[in-house]
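## retry 2 of 3
previous attempt timed out at serialization; input unchanged, resubmitting
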Amino acid sequence: MSIFGNRKTQMVGPDEALPGREARMPVPDRHQVLGTPLKRPYPEGTRTAEFALGCFWGEEKAFWQVPGVYTTAVGYQGGFTPNPTYEEVCTGRTGHAEAVRVVYDPGKVTYEQLLKVFWESHDPTQGMRQGNDVGSQYRSVIFYADGAQKAAAEKSKAEFQKKLTENGYGEITTEIVSAPEFFFAEDYHQQYLEKVPHGYCPDHSTGVSCPVGLIKAD
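## retry succeeded, writing output
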């Protein structure tokens, strides 16, 4: 069986995780669409939000299209293997989720608005999967950077749960955890749908509107 057929839905433990490597993944200098740097340092006053919500190709595009977003990047987060490759993450033996980093100007877009994009862009009730994409790398996670983000994430989760319940959906399985190290994915994954316009981009959204983030920042 190929590594792509090994669809693990159980989290690997640190003692079972692949060893990884010391060398970091090469990262493109500029965003393919926005023309902004993918790596730090980011401009003064910008903030960073990180999310996992299924296959990162389509989810990154959902965020880079938001006015006020400075740059985006895809990577691996929430596991144990340092500097993993895509193939390793796909085995389910790194513990990482496919994640999107969103760097934004809080004077133009609020964190709550980004949470709205997050909730409405996938089905957060599916556990270790999104549709036919099955495995721990497809789980739903909000990686908060500070207490304010944590509080906003928890509040939005409670509010969206009410809407989902009203529409016949089950319990949200999204994790809300402190942001660990973000490992950039390979070059070809960055802004993938700009490079491959008709590439794989499943829609796993519930169609339920999230009641948070409706007011833009001044």
